[in-house]
Specification:
about 150 residues; mainly beta; SH3 type barrels; six-stranded antiparallel beta sheet; five-stranded antiparallel beta sheet; elongated
Length: about 150
Amino acid sequence: MQSVGALSSPYIDKGACPFEGCVYREWTAKKAIDLYDKPNGTRIVGHLRAGEHVAGLTGEVHSIPIRVVAKENIPDPEHPDRTMIPKGQGFYVIHYLGEGNWLAWYRGNLTTVESMSEDGPFPQATWWVQVKTSKGIIAWTVSLNNLDNQDRFG
């Protein structure tokens, strides 16, 4: 587990690529997209047209962590025979990582937990991505299934 001290809200996971197979490389805009000066920015610095190619450079997942209570003992991902979070203990779920894994915070440490309930609750999360256009503009946009080729598996 990585120690992070106090948990912030929103939690910003810099460099995150939030699903199995997620990869930063050449992406293609599926539709017209506004580009902003920074995550959560209001100043538009460029636009993409449908079909335009960009380089996906990095990203940040901005999330509102939610507190949940462990319904059963949660094993330590590095030592499955050990309990990391005991049944009945509260912890915070930050955002989805892929393959059924979630980034979580427990007692001042970041960790990974598996198999959250399919019924939720789930944290609110927004994936901001930084791209570089063919004109050299480096800017940010929210990835809302509007960029193709982000998944190395499909």
